[in-house]
Amino acid sequence: MPNAPRQRCTVHKTRNIVGRCPKHLREIAPKEASEIWKAPNRAEARSRAQAFIAKYRGSGHDTLANIIEGDLEATLTFYDLDASIWQTMRSTNVLERTNREFRARFRAIGAHQEANKTEASPATTRTAVLVAIRLNDEAKNQTVKGFKQRNRAQRTAR
Question: Are 21 and 30 in contact (CB under 8 A)?
């Protein structure tokens, strides 16, 4: 999907800041970084990011500046979407939960243990389908923040 927009997870960016912070900045720098993505628009987010970069690069904490600067535009993609879903779309938590479920099930059945295999075994495929069905069933009645739940008539009309 070469034309799909790429959104880097802002939660992970903030965690990277936490992991690289000296102790005396652990209360300050992550909060300042997360404020970048809470900006009301892309221009303000860029402005906050530039201020963060200048502050930390100027004080000898180039690593923190580089974390933000490295792929800043990829962390701002959510601004292209409807504002009501920004909070949901700037994080990869939903995808990570799904991937974690797949990995746990594959590990449990010993799938993909042969490094030379190029295609999934029938057992792996069945497991993937069953995990996806279960996750779908669990999510059916949950609304993702910012997305409106469509009623059954609207879903069947599509």
Answer: yes
pLDDT tens string 9-59: 899 999 999 999 999 999 999 999 999 999 999 999 999 999 999 999 989
Burial status of residue 45 (CB atoms within 10 A of its CB: 0-12, 13-18, 19 or more): buried
Going from N- to C-terminal start, the domains of the chain cover: 10-89, 93-157
**How far apart (Å, rounded) are the C-alpha atoms in residues 95 and 102?**
11
Neighbours of 91 (CB within 10 A): 16
